Amino acid sequence: MSTAPRSQARNSKDDGASRDLTLLAALLGIVYLSGPVLATVRDGMDSIAFLAAAPFAVLVTLARLQSVLRIAVWTTAFVALYAISALTVPGGTAGFNHTSAALSAGAAILLFASYGKSMVESQTFRIAAYAVIVAGIVGTWAGGGPKNGMGGAILYLVAMLLSIMVARARTHYSPYVLAFFVLAGALGFILDFRGLIGYAAVLVLAYLGAATLPKRLFWLVGIVGSSIVVGVTMWYFINIATSALADTITRLVSDASGRRAASGRDWLWPAILETVGSRDPWFGLGAGMLPRDFMPTDLSSHSYYIQVYLQLGFVGLTVLVGLLLSVWKPLAFSTDAPGYFGAAIFLMFVTHNATEVLMFQNALLVGIPAWCAIGLAISVTKKSTALPMRPQTEAATGLRGRR
């Protein structure tokens, strides 16, 4: 009996299973993008939806694990480190909440990095995504709240919206980058949150670098440049009280803007560093720990990197850097506009987290859209980063077969 019918049946079954997984991934993607809409319906509903979607997102990612293996390994290590550390914090649910947030955000990037290209090829998905993103922007604006959270959520929702458009565009990508800068600038002035203009400027510069620099040089420049931005930001706020240069910068900023430059980080960060350094700088004070647990304040750490050091110490920071580098590599070496735009969003996001807690914790309404946009760029640009196979003509193949 011929094996052809069996082979065809098996292939048809595999194709059907692949379509089912892609459909499920698309539905989960819409859930992730619907976070701001859910948050306007009921406070906390977005976090519940993210956590409920995370296990399914991980499961469907397993079918395409090879394509995101390095990112998956580092993401798993980071979430596992939070879960283990949470067990060392006596009482309370903060450790569980922060572990759940890391799982939710990690699953989001894996989902979009694995299935993003398949998602945006569907017109139905694109229409649904545009609808929930626009509704999320409107709902976030109408809901008000702190300007940092509202401005950040709208910023990355716009980034995700434009990422889908860039992924489907064929030419003329520059207008999307210009549109992002204009929208971010307008939002910064309307909300009196001028930092958004700076973040948008980082995106424009990063996009230009991605489009013009040799790939290995851009990879290195992205690492060194973002490290310098984060490092200088840390140095400035930590040394305002002791450095003449930092004090001069503070006075110049205050004279130019008419507002205080420090925003509380000048005393918050040194206190955190001193406390963690005297107790356990290697493993931190435990997942879920916050500044309020050892000092009289209700403020967060106001820096995701300071927060990770507070909770997981140098070990946690090392794993986080490994995770970020695993995400950065496919973006830095991409050779098309969706990859350039994703690399620019990534560098903007990395520098943004120097002064806010957004990446895998607290403001998931900001972090989730950012990771979705970054994951989408990885998925769309993956094939362009691989070395092309040498073309083989049918005649040449046949000659080798006869030999």
Strand tally: 0
> Which blocks of ≥5 consecutive residues have pLDDT under 50?
384-403
What structural class do the secondary elements suggest? mainly alpha
Please outline the major beta sheet: none
Averaging pLDDT over every residue, what do you get? Answer: 87
General shape: globular
Instruction: Supply Rg.
Output: 23 Å
For the termini, the CA-CA separation is 29 Å
Helix and strand sequence = HHHHHHHHHHHHHHHH
Count of helix runs: 16
Please bin the fraction of helical residues: over 70%
Strand content: under 5%
Protein described:
The protein has 16 helices and no strands. It is mostly helical and 403 residues long. α5 packs across α15, α6 runs antiparallel to α7 and α14 runs antiparallel to α15. The longest helix has 30 residues. The chain is globular and about 60 Å long. The relative contact order is 0.13. The C terminus is likely disordered.
